[in-house]
């Protein structure tokens, strides 16, 4: 019989935080739009490259926060009744190469399959068992290596988002994912317009923030589901409660970085109940003892290195292991 890890009392306690505060939702949406607009105007009006670069990084971080608002909106955790807010937020998703139809399909798939050992990389970075990996062809092994490689994270703007989230889904299913094509088309024409208008503003006000946020976002998503202490299950034994608490990490960071990343670091709680708005996640962790001892990772180079060295899951040892000479 399949073992269940479900904790009724924990889920009941967590449900208290799965309620939207509409005033907060609107405040945070207006706040992010106002700050981004102000910084874009500032970048346009200053000339020193060092200041433009600094503001560009800040805008990239703000893109992460805005993306979490987008993420929660599509999860129906916030803005469930406002068509205008949902339109504005989905427009942002198009702008940053995250078309809603593709994101909803892939991310919902991720939530329903987090921690399973299989070859699908829909909505996540694939994890194979040792036996599965060696059963692949050389070409398939190369794809698996590259998908999990730091280069794929670093160039996430091109690989994860432009290709993976937009072009490939559209090519595979044009009618279902036409917004993927629309995102690329809008991105292309906006880029041409900005380059013609002001090349420096295009780079620091638009392209680099998006490149930076794509890289950081891909990195956060990778390490939240690929870390040394991760526990995995086969498809038949899968349990979403187990997946949330043992296959999903808590990313410990400063309060400033938690703000910029929209509390996405409280990822174990999000996977337990995706209806908890991002601004309630810290409260839930602080007030529910059972959530206070998660598997934790940090920004340290040691943690990053350990996460990236992980290669496949050894079913005999029941843990992720490294592979010798696993260079791309």
UniProtKB/TrEMBL annotation:
This is Fatty acid desaturase. It comes from Bernardetia litoralis (strain ATCC 23117 / DSM 6794 / NBRC 15988 / NCIMB 1366 / Fx l1 / Sio-4). GO terms for cellular component: membrane. Residues 53-288 form the Fatty acid desaturase domain. GO terms for molecular function: oxidoreductase activity, acting on paired donors, with oxidation of a pair of donors resulting in the reduction of molecular oxygen to two molecules of water. Keywords: Membrane, Transmembrane, Transmembrane helix. The chain crosses the membrane at residues 26-44, 50-70, 153-171, 178-195, 201-222. It holds the Pfam family FA_desaturase. One of its GO terms (biological process) is lipid metabolic process. InterPro entries: FA_desaturase_dom, Fatty_acid_desaturase.
């Amino acid at each position: 019989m399949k073992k269940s890890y479900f904790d009724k009392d924990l889920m009941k306690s967590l449900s208290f935080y799965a309620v939207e505060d509409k005033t907060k939702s609107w405040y945070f949406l207006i706040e992010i739009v106002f700050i981004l607009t102000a910084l874009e105007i500032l970048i346009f009006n200053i000339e020193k490259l060092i200041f433009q670069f600094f503001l560009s990084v800040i805008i990239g971080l703000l893109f992460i926060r805005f993306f979490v608002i987008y993420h929660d909106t599509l999860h129906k955790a916030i803005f469930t009744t406002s068509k205008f807010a949902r339109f504005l937020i989905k427009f942002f998703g198009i702008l940053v190469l995250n078309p809603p139809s593709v994101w909803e399909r892939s991310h919902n798939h991720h939530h329903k399959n987090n921690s399973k050992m299989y070859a699908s990389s829909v909505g996540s970075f694939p994890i194979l068992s040792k036996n599965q990996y060696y059963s692949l062809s050389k070409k398939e092994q190369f794809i698996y290596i590259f998908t999990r490689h730091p280069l794929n994270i670093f160039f996430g703007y091109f690989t994860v988002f432009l290709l993976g989230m937009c072009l490939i889904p559209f090519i595979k299913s044009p009618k279902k994912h036409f917004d993927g094509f629309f995102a690329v088309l809008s991105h292309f024409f906006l880029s041409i317009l900005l380059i013609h208008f002001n090349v420096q503003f295009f780079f620091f006000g638009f392209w680099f923030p998006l490149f930076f946020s794509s890289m950081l976002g891909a990195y956060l998503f990778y390490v939240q589901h690929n870390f040394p202490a991760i526990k995995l299950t086969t498809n038949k034994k899968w349990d979403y409660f187990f997946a949330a608490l043992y296959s999903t990490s808590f990313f410990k960071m400063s309060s400033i970085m938690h703000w910029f990343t929209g509390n996405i670091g409280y990822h174990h709680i999000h996977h337990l109940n995706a209806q908890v708005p991002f601004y309630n996640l810290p409260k839930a962790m602080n007030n529910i003892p059972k959530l206070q001892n998660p598997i934790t990772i940090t920004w340290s180079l040691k943690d990053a290195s350990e996460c990236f060295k992980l290669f496949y899951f050894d079913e005999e040892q029941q843990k992720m292991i490294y592979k010798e000479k696993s260079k791309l």
